[in-house]
Amino acid sequence: MRGRWIERWDPENETFWRETGERIARRNLLFSVLSEHIGFSIWTLWSVMVLFMGPEYGIDPAGKFALIAVATLVGAVIRVPYTFAVARFGGRNWTVLSAMALLVPTGAAYAVMEPGTSYSTFLLVAALTGVGGGNFASSMTNINAFFPLHKKGWALGLNAGGGNIGVPVVQLVGLLVIGTAGAAHPRIVLGVYIPLIVLAAVCAALFMDNLAPVRNDTGAAKEAVRDAHTWIMACLYIGTFGSFIGYSFAFGLVLQTQFGRTPLQAASLTFIGPLLGSLIRPVGGSLADRYGGARITLWNFAAMAAATSVVVYASVTESLAVFLVGFTSLFVLSGLGNGSTYKMIPAIFRSKAYASGLEGEAAEAYGRRLSGAAMGLIGAVGAVGGLGINLAFRQSFQTAGTGTAAFVAFLVYYAVCLTVTRAVYLRRPAGVPATRQLSYSEV
């Protein structure tokens, strides 16, 4: 696909950014958010479709869980190739292609969403929605290249937050259809999204740009895989984004199973947490821009551990009100942490460049190159963490009848993340020359 290519891009140059770069970057960010938002909605589509699947479909709760799980898994794995597609095809071009690809799972669901369809067909169609999860990785990699370091936290937070809102929005659309047309009309939801997918693709084609300096570099991918910071940050991202997406899928099921809420009662609450977590993600990025991503991430994991303790207490005492307060707080904190952890990634690789002796544009180029490659891997592992959360809930309910054991496991994991953040990114090692350290004030 031929498209508009910008040959020179230097966002760290203040004059270039003020006179040219900022306007172009903001325009690309706007339409990137639109496409990613639709992608998240399609990725989580089956968390809504299962609400329409009554007894006439012949699928038990475990089968419905599997539909959701396969979409989560495919969406996680596909993030890796989507990350490198931006450099191969161009950010604008790939946004158009990835948006149009959403028509495949949406159209397939429209065709099969009726009683009598085989379960294997439903499973295949649910797996197709994983392409929506891939949109996040390519979108974040693309936007990362447009903005200077001191703006990346805000930009990446806004891009991801606008995408994450696709989760509660598709849930609200599903609830609106159930409340008005009834549970026998799931195709209305799909009919709403098909024209929106086309709109996102057309807008990307008309208003976005490709950056020529961002070229395909398999060496960057290999370096990112070998770098320990990629995997350390992936573990931290499991704690933030893994929590967000895992809790988004599981919230309604926990309310039904542990607190006896009806499907409609549970569904009327499930969108609140994802909505708040999505809205606050840009705040996490902005706070990281101001105070440092590692510092915000550290305190955020401490707060997540505290909120999880509240949830454990509510689970043991069977207090729904306390549970809702604690669980909603977890959503908010996971969104905040999503913004701060993603801000850390470009700062880490930029700091490594300066610590190794690189300077100026050479250091900036190294940071953009490695952080762009690492983001896809980190995003993929974080999304797999969401699958792990759902499996932990399933095991906990199967063995004990409550989610308490799962929450205790999550509490331990948040404590580990807090310890790792402090040890790796905030504690200055003794005896190491300052020029060879990471710039902790920026990370």
What this model shows, in words?
By secondary structure, the protein is mainly alpha-helical. It folds into two domains: 1-216, Growth Hormone, Chain: A (Up-down Bundle); 217-443, MFS general substrate transporter like domains (Growth Hormone, Chain: A, Up-down Bundle). The chain has 19 helices and two strands. It has helices spanning 14-43, 45-49, 61-77, 79-89, 91-101, 103-112, 119-128, 130-146, 149-164, 166-180, 187-207, 218-226, 228-259, 263-270, 272-291, 293-317, 320-355, 360-400, 404-426; strands at residues 5-6, 210-211. Strands 1-2 form a two-stranded parallel ribbon.
In short:
The chain has 443 residues and is mainly alpha-helical. Helices cover 81% and strands 1% of the residues.
- Cα distance, first to last residue? 37 Å
SSE sequence, one letter per element: EHHHHHHHHHHHEHHHHHHHH
> Which class of secondary structure composition applies to the elements?
mainly alpha
CATH class of the largest domain: Mainly Alpha
Q: How many domains is the backbone divided into? A: 2
Portion in strands: under 5%
Q: Show unreliable segments.
A: 430-437
Main β sheet profile: 2 strands, parallel
> What do we call the CATH topology of the largest domain?
Growth Hormone, Chain: A
- Our count of helices gives 19
What oligomeric state best describes the polypeptide chains here? single chain
Descriptors:
443 residues, Growth Hormone, Chain: A, 19 helices, 2 strands, two-stranded parallel sheet, 2 domains, mainly alpha
Secondary structure blueprint with pairings:
Blueprint (H helix, E strand, L loop, with lengths): L4 E2 L7 H30 L1 H5 L11 H17 L1 H11 L1 H11 L1 H10 L6 H10 L1 H17 L2 H16 L1 H15 L6 H21 L2 E2 L6 H9 L1 H32 L3 H8 L1 H20 L1 H25 L2 H36 L4 H41 L3 H23 L17
Parallel strand pairs: 1-2
Helix pairs in contact: 1-8, 1-9, 1-10, 1-11, 3-7, 3-8, 3-18, 4-5, 4-8, 4-18, 5-8, 5-11, 6-7, 6-11, 8-9, 8-18, 9-15, 9-17, 10-14, 12-18, 13-14, 13-17, 13-18, 13-19, 15-16, 15-17, 16-17, 16-19, 17-18, 18-19
